[in-house]
What we know:
Cofactor: FAD
GO molecular function: flavin adenine dinucleotide binding; oxidoreductase activity, acting on CH-OH group of donors
Bound molecules: flavin-adenine dinucleotide
Number of domains: 2
Keywords: FAD, Flavoprotein
Distance between the termini: 22 Å
Binding site for FAD: 229, 559-560
InterPro entries: FAD/NAD-bd_sf (IPR036188), GMC_OxRdtase (IPR012132), GMC_OxRdtase_N (IPR000172), GMC_OxRtase_C (IPR007867)
Oligomer: single chain
Amino acid sequence: xxxxxxxxxxxxxxxxxxxxxxxxxxxxxxxxxxxxxxxxxxxxxxxxxxxxxxxxxxxxxxxxxxxxxxxxxxxxxxxxxxxxxxxxxxxxxxxxxxxxxxxxxxxxxxxxxxxxxxxxxxxxxxxxxxxxxxxxxxxxxxxxxxxxxxxxxxxxxxxxxxxxxxxxxxxxxxxxxxxxxxxxxxxxxxxxxxxxxxxxxxxxxxxxxxxxxxxxxxxxxxxxxxxxxxxxxxxxxxxxxxxxxxxxxxxxxxxxxxxxxxxxxxxxxxxxxxxxxxxxxxxxxxxxxxxxxxxxxxxxxxxxxxxxxxxxxxxxxxxxxxxxxxxxxxxxxxxxxxxxxxxxxxxxxxxxxxxxxxxxxxxxxxxxxxxxxxxxxxxxxxxxxxxxxxxxxxxxxxxxxxxxxxxxxxxxxxxxxxxxxxxxxxxxxxxxxxxxxxxxxxxxxxxxxxxxxxxxxxxxxxxxxxxxxxxxxxxxxxxxxxxxxxxxxxxxxxxxxxxxxxxxxxxxxxxxxxxxxxxxxxxxxxxxxxxxxxxxxxxxxxxxxxxxxxxxxxxxxxxxxxxxxxxxxxxxxxxxxxxxxxxxxxxxxxxxxxxxxxxxxxxxxxxxxxxxxxxxxxxxxxxxxxxxxxxxxxxxxxxxxxxxxxxxxx
Length: 650
Ligand SMILES: Cc1cc2nc3c(=O)[nH]c(=O)nc-3n(C[C@H](O)[C@H](O)[C@H](O)COP(=O)(O)OP(=O)(O)OC[C@H]3O[C@@H](n4cnc5c(N)ncnc54)[C@H](O)[C@@H]3O)c2cc1C
């Protein structure tokens, strides 16, 4: 079908928020013509998207995998000891939901209330939180939904180390809960749910749920992929269309070749926190000074565009576990027979398969005790008093356990591992992104801002210690992978200890060097016994410094970008109002996580969907329409047992 040159609404960017808006609008009225323009490829029936267990491959930066765009800090950062941080972002239909780790969490109620915007309190949003969910777990509260397009379950299998983690977490004072995603719990551990449909074993991505579902039953949703939106076309300050270019400029001598599509009613920017501000700036919406330097005609002077970039910060520490532990290491290493077995299992029984999981089966949200706060220094205590103290629903850190090493396995010794992720949920640091050229092919100036506020070190340091205490109390624990821990002084009682001799001998029974004495290179120990661990490790100031250096050297994105087109008053640097309309323009909205004026303590897929649902309601209201529920049936609903799941099926 040749696509029309004019439609009613154009949605730019097919991530979770854009997919919700395009799908909800098109389904609400079959006469409304909606076009969704996505920079990446179509994700439909891509087995490297819908099989949950292979998600780590999406982070390969090998020049072949182009499901992600890698934003790299333009400048070296003194806060990262001279390092440049890298923030991978989705570049595929479905956005982050096609490549993410599928971990299901939700923001705390006070996070939405803190937006201080009419219509956006947690209470206002609760019906929309329920509307989007097809929650497939038993639960004891009334905050989840059961008829929505996005499936949430425990996946095909739960690894035994998850229970080991929960028992150890309980031993250090973090209680078990059946649902810490109830919008209120800020200190507790749980079996961590996933965006996986328990009936099909497939990833629950936003494009399948909201876009393909509608395209299967209606003809008014036009999908254009591999097309990068370069700018919004204005008449005066009214958005009347967009210009897009091929995502790769490998013809026309690299020149920018634009195609224009007209929008009769509205243009919606949903290109994500790092994409949307670039489109705005190329269109003449942003800091007038910057735009004039690039010879861009100013449509609306909004200095807040591209500012206040936020993320969550991840550090990870890797532990050795007993050789009999079930982990994904051999699958990830590429052991042929293991891969064959797991792929075959998925093809025949995807709903119960080991690959129908992200193997991140347990996790926690934690807040420090009064005693722990005393050790966290003045900078964090000041932040605590302002931000956390009176909001008992805000966790300071998240943590989760992966049954395997989240690392390049060619760099690791043989054996089995678990990875402890530590996530800082409300960093005080801020970054920015701005275009450097009018060309959509030129990389922007990017400053992740990671760790540029000193207050962010203490909670990560505290959390590293907490997860280490949990690891030591797990039955499976067999030591620390020293390369993936802080470099403590070898004489310090806090120094890490690698694999014990017994476990090492099981790996290399005929090895001639197992357990040799070689100074500080090896610290083989007596077999570990978790039942004898009662005391926490004590750290000196020098040890804390080693942890802080490790944080600066290794802290990474949690891929939870938000905040660059904030919904707040214009005079405070705001970019959109409470209806998500861009200040100083007409018929132009931003609907994605760039609109968050403050951080959200959650893995952000749920929030992006929610912003999409809210945006869809606001737009439909302006168009005199109403959302139609339930949404169109999601494709790939139960795959008949025994049939290859790669067949297109409804
Ligand atoms: C690797 C990774 C792991 C993650 N893990 C989790 C997790 O386990 N759980 C969780 O809850 N969240 C996770 N997230 C976060 C979550 O996926 C994101 O918060 C969410 O996808 C953000 O949605 P969005 O719609 O705001 O933007 P995005 O998902 O960034 O979508 C923006 C879309 O716009 C497109 N685009 C960009 N520029 C243009 C342009 N100029 N023209 C046209 N299209 C454009 C992009 O290709 C993309 O498809 C993860 C994200 C990543 C990247």
